[in-house]
Design brief:
- It is a single chain.
- The protein contains 5 helices and 12 strands.
- Strands 1-2-3-6-5-4 form a 6-stranded antiparallel barrel.
- With 286 residues, the protein is of the alpha+beta class.
- 19% of the residues lie in helices and 37% in strands.
- The chain has a single domain, classed as Thrombin, subunit H (Beta Barrel).
């Protein structure tokens, strides 16, 4: 009888079992990149712009217009959007002065910003550009009561080689402007001509934000040129061989610029946008 009482006491002291819903156990856990996409994709917007093209050759000229779309990211509650400068400043080939009777110029104008799940087009203007880093900033003129998801680049990021990072972007109109993510790995670091991080492959276009797996802002993809002329790289053949072997060339490459550095650029662009907002409306699109 004593043995039975001890066994009963031990049974009573066991912790109760917790019932688990089989359906809950079967639910997959959302991946970290998917969580980053869900949190930050509202900040990735579409910029629509009219490109006015002027073409002249052989004594005749022709003008035309076309509409283009680019992605951008909201970087300030006022409606400031950062994007890729190449979208609005085509290469010199397309903006060349007259040479041999040929001239072609592309001028961007009539900017509109479109948000996800919002059919309204918000008028905007080109507020500032940074040609060295390949960045441009578009300012929305009137937001009304629109609430924005803003990517803040103020903090200095915690980045280490080998970290997995997440970039966000959107597809075009033909694919419902669907937001998507890409992951990559921090593969190295440069300290000249400025501090930046090398990525295994670009997770997003230049001018777009990059996050860690927890959704913290790390920085933005930008173009950085070495500052070395190709002629200085042991001549043309030496430069070509350097490029084929993975060495440095004079042309700009995409790097991850730390968020606190991007934040200072955003601050300057915001001041420029405020200055232009104070101008006459007719001057904003010039």
């Amino acid at each position: 009888m004593k043995l039975a009482r001890h066994a009963l006491t031990a049974l009573v002291l066991l912790p109760p079992l917790t019932a688990q819903n089989p359906q809950d156990a079967a639910k997959p856990t959302k991946s970290a990149p998917a969580s980053v996409l869900a949190r930050w994709s509202p900040a990735i917007v579409t910029i629509r712009v009219v490109l006015a093209t002027s073409f002249a050759a052989g004594g005749s000229s022709q003008d035309s217009e076309s509409t283009a779309e680019f992605n951008g990211v909201v970087v300030d509650p006022s409606g400031l959007v950062m994007t890729n400068n190449a979208a609005f400043t085509p290469p010199d080939l397309f903006n060349a002065s007259e040479a041999g009777g040929f001239r072609m110029r592309i001028t961007p104008r009539d900017f509109k910003v479109v948000f996800d799940k919002d059919d309204k087009e918000y008028p905007a203007f080109l507020a500032a550009t940074d040609k060295k880093l390949g960045l441009a900033f578009v300012q929305i003129q009137e937001l009304g009561d629109k609430k924005l998801t803003v990517v803040d680049f103020a903090a200095e990021p915690d980045i280490a080689i080998g970290d997995e990072v997440v970039g966000l972007s959107r597809l075009g109109k033909g694919f419902d402007h669907a937001a998507y993510y890409r992951t990559t790995t921090i593969a190295g670091e440069i300290k000249k001509p400025r501090k930046a991080w090398i990525v295994d492959r670009a997770p997003a276009a230049d001018g777009h934000p990059v996050f860690d797996r927890q959704g913290r802002v790390l920085g933005a993809m930008v173009k950085i040129a070495s500052g070395i002329k190709s002629s200085a790289l042991h001549g043309g053949l030496g430069a070509m061989l350097s490029g084929l072997s993975g060495g440095s060339t004079a042309g700009p490459r995409s790097f991850l610029l730390p968020g606190n550095v991007v934040g200072r650029i955003v601050k300057q662009a915001k001041a420029q946008a405020a200055k232009r907002m104070a101008e006459k409306p007719d001057d904003k699109h010039k």
